[in-house]
Design brief:
Blueprint: H1 9-18, H2 25-33, H3 47-75
Length: 76
């Protein structure tokens, strides 16, 4: 089952600019919003898996933050 969400052209361009070749738009949005917090799923995942997820998210936040700053500059 899927739903449609109406977004502005500018936001669509922002998401599309961050889309990787092997991703769907949904996957890009999930990546950009950071997905679930490891603490929220700690009861579901092993502590090792949660730690790996936490580390990966922290790594991506730093890289994505720089990409977002560069994209914001384009829209200013």
């Amino acid at each position: 089952m899927s739903k449609s969400v109406r977004i502005s052209e500018e936001f669509h361009e922002f998401v599309y600019a961050h889309k990787r070749d092997d991703e769907t738009m949904e996957e890009t949005l999930r990546r950009l919003i950071g997905g679930p917090n490891p603490e929220d799923v700690a009861g579901i995942l092993s502590s090792d898996t949660a730690a790996i997820m936490r580390d990966n998210l922290e790594e991506k936040e730093g890289a994505d933050a720089e990409d977002k700053r560069e994209l914001r500059k384009r829209f200013e």
